[in-house]
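User: Last request for today: this protein with flavin-adenine dinucleotide, please.
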Amino acid sequence: MRVGIVGCGVVGATIAYRLSKIPGMEVLVYDGRKPDRLDATGAALGVLMAVSCAKLKGRHIKLRLESLTLFEELIPELVERTGIDIAYNRQGILQVFFDRAELDRWYTTQAVRQSKGFRLEIWSDVQLLERFPELASARSLEGNESVVGAVFSPQDRQLNPAVLTQALVQGAVQNGAKFHFNTPVSGFRSRGLDNHHQVTHLCTSQNDVPVDWIVVAAGLGSMPLTQTLNQPIPIFPVLGQALHLRCPKPIRPDSPVITEGDVHLVPLNDREVWVGATVEYPQSETDVSINPNPEDLERVRLRAIALYPPLVGAEVIRTWQGLRPRPHERAAPVIEQLPGYQNVSIAAGHYRNGVLLAPVTAERILTFLQTTL
Ligand SMILES: Cc1cc2nc3c(=O)[nH]c(=O)nc-3n(C[C@H](O)[C@H](O)[C@H](O)COP(=O)(O)OP(=O)(O)OC[C@H]3O[C@@H](n4cnc5c(N)ncnc54)[C@H](O)[C@@H]3O)c2cc1C
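Assistant: Here's the final one, the structure of the complex with flavin-adenine dinucleotide:
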């Protein structure tokens, strides 16, 4: 079976790698980007927040937990096959709280996670400061409150999304997959009537490529592509800005990701951290462009310093921004068969968790394909 995957961000690359392991599967990947330039995936912080997600039940939390579990096998496998160091941080995620009522709500989450075999630790302020004395002068930016405690999630992870994507591509190539960068897909050729269409080719400016199955994993590009099939899946951008900082003082070598609300501090080495991210919506829900607001980014920087005082005086090495693909008026992500088509799957609209959800997305796409094998 010849599968054409459109899009090689983290989602498309993970699908390509997964499918390339199946005997008899010919995997072709097309992306309009240059090999070393990434869209949303290149902006992501790589925080894999599953056990410490506040949601108690439902499809979304199930996907998160399943994907986190898949990562534990995927990362060692990729490192062994490719020799690429993916910078997989196994130190967990520490969520700091300034509000007692908010912290207390986590006892319910803790019990629910425990019933599924996952662990959360809830620490008082004393327990937190025993382990992390550097947080003694942490304050909330808004109310200047001091810490009341923390939720520590030892099983959550973080990694470098660009390096992960590179390793997935390399691993898939080793398994025989073919990648075509600088090659945007403009549309498809199909046959069939009414609700029983079948795509026969994907079309680039160079040629029409015969395929048995199509996976659209094109992030924000998925909407125009599904439009060409008269089944548009509306996906719009939400902008995120982030910073790379160098601390004046060393950071402990075993540091977890430290989080408060939307602000994540991602340790990279003994001096450097990523900090992000803003969440900036378009003026109207269906705008396709967003102007980054410098005040939002500054607020993230100030919140990070208030949360983690060793960052006072940190130098800004770099700032960046990216567009998260968010489905319009439906839950993220969209992983489904395109209505009306027998051989088109969609894996898009992963919004704020595309890195985390990439492995489980690949498993779901494989299941769609296996029903016809
Ligand atoms: C600041 C920021 C921080 C984030 N932090 C995290 C985080 O900590 N954890 C997490 O899980 N997620 C995070 N995210 C979200 C994450 O980045 C996205 O959910 C994820 O990258 C989506 O991956 P994707 O492969 O679907 O899309 P993309 O990475 O955008 O890839 C889509 C690809 O499709 C290609 N394409 C589009 N149209 C076409 C076409 N017609 N033909 C060929 N190719 C096409 C594009 O060139 C692109 O390479 C963050 C996002 C931002 C912006």
